Amino acid sequence: MAKRILVVGGAGYIGAHTAFALGRAGYDALVFDNLSTGRREFLRFGRHIIGDLADRGALDDLFSENAFDAVMHFASRINVGESVADPGKYYRANVADSLNLLEAVRDHGVKHFIFSSSAAVYGLPQGPLTEGHPFSPINPYGKTKAAVEWMLADFSAAYGLKYCALRYFNAAGAAPVASGAKIGEMHEPETHLIPLVLQAARKGESATVFGTDYSTPDGTCIRDYIHVCDLAEAHILAMQRLMSGEQSAAFNLGGGRGFSVREVIEAARRVTEINVAMREAPRRPGDPDTLVSVNAKARTELGWEPRYADLEYIVRTAWDWERERSRSLTFEQS
Ligand SMILES: NC(=O)c1ccc[n+]([C@@H]2O[C@H](COP(=O)([O-])OP(=O)(O)OC[C@H]3O[C@@H](n4cnc5c(N)ncnc54)[C@H](O)[C@@H]3O)[C@@H](O)[C@H]2O)c1
């Protein structure tokens, strides 16, 4: 019988891609999501239950009715700026609600847990960003991710839960058109560079560049973009590793290579064949020059090889999705 996997937050961007990948890999995925930021139309991959992590009764029902072989936890608030303005909301959603889930997992005897952590746990780089880099998050969002990683370590020591914390760098791109998945990035408000540049291209607007005086070759920030389908695959590999009896671990999930904001805009110009204009704006507080992963551990211990590392391919899949999405928006409005 197919292994049953709970995908908490599976109506969101990365969770939906992972639910899709799980189905293709022969797993029985069940999505649990409150649709706070997720999309009802992404609930097409396996069964789903609409519910909230804050509702312990709903979690008990869910776990009593289903024996899960693993839980993947994507649900979170994700807006760094909002976390600074309203930290209480972030500690409640990202820490308290995760604790609810972890206690339900413990009480119902689920053995394997995969957590969506973030490069934000590291804060400003003090050296190469390996998994051993100290935790020094500089905003409440990053602190909530660090807090859940600490909870996981304690639950693992006390109750024997096996977990992987997957520290994503900048998730980007969308399932290729040929996959037929019709899913992609759809945050509201959108704060991520690639969809913002592509929305600007589609609307004939300019793309805002925050800071052009960083200590980087072209003066703009450098980030590590990782295709969402590569992230989905890493989740399956991490889960299989735990199921094979390996110990809990944390892994960086990034391409291991950085691209500047200007390089992203240039890739978007080539892909869209639209000469997106750049509007220069001041730096945003707390943005480091460069954030690039060292991904050797995921490569060697998970056998993970990012397949879609090419920036232009990442932007192309995001652009295909942007056009698909805007067509359905136009259709909804007419
Ligand atoms: N997008 C990135 O670049 C990035 C980078 C690093 C880490 N992450 C982490 O990856 C995870 C997924 O990010 P995403 O971009 O797919 O976000 P998303 O907002 O698209 O998805 C989150 C999903 O969780 C659901 N959800 C939120 N609170 C819930 C609750 N209390 N109960 C049930 N469901 C709930 C939402 O409805 C949504 O479907 C998050 O934990 C995020 O912090 C994302």
Structural class assignment: alpha/beta
CATH-defined architecture of the largest domain: 3-Layer(aba) Sandwich
Give the helix level as a range of percent. Answer: 40-55%
Distinct compounds present: nicotinamide-adenine-dinucleotide
Largest beta-sheet details: 7 strands, parallel
Number of DSSP strand runs: 14
Approximately how much beta-strand content do the residues carry? 15-25%
Distance between the termini: 45 Å
Label the overall shape: globular
SSE string, helix = H, strand = E? EHEEHEHHEHEEHEEEHEEHEEHH
Q: Can you tell me the number of structural domains? A: 2
CATH class of the largest domain: Alpha Beta
Largest beta sheet: strand ordering:
3-2-1-4-5-6-11
How many H/I helices? 10
Which superfamily, in CATH terms, is the homologous superfamily of the largest domain? NAD(P)-binding Rossmann-like Domain
Instruction: Briefly note the CATH topology name of the largest domain.
Output: Rossmann fold
The Rg value, from CA coordinates, equals 19 Å
Structural features, described:
This protein folds into 2 domains: 4-172 and 225-253, NAD(P)-binding Rossmann-like Domain (Rossmann fold, 3-Layer(aba) Sandwich); 177-223 and 256-333, UDP-galactose 4-epimerase, domain 1 (Alpha-Beta Complex), CATH 3.90.25.10. The protein is of the alpha/beta class and 334 residues long. Helix 5 links the parallel strand 5 and strand 6 (162-168). Helices cover 41% and strands 18% of the residues. The model has no long low-confidence stretch (mean pLDDT 96). The strands form 4 sheets. The protein has a 7-stranded parallel beta sheet with strand order 3-2-1-4-5-6-11, with helices on both faces. The relative contact order is 0.14. Helix 2 packs parallel to helix 4 (87-107), helix 4 packs parallel to helix 5 (140-159) and helix 8 (261-272) packs across helix 10. The chain starts with a strand and ends with a helix. The structure holds nicotinamide-adenine-dinucleotide. Nicotinamide-adenine-dinucleotide (NAD) binds at residues 9, 11-15, 33-38, 52-54, 74-76, 78, 93, 97, 116, 118, 168, 170-171, 187.
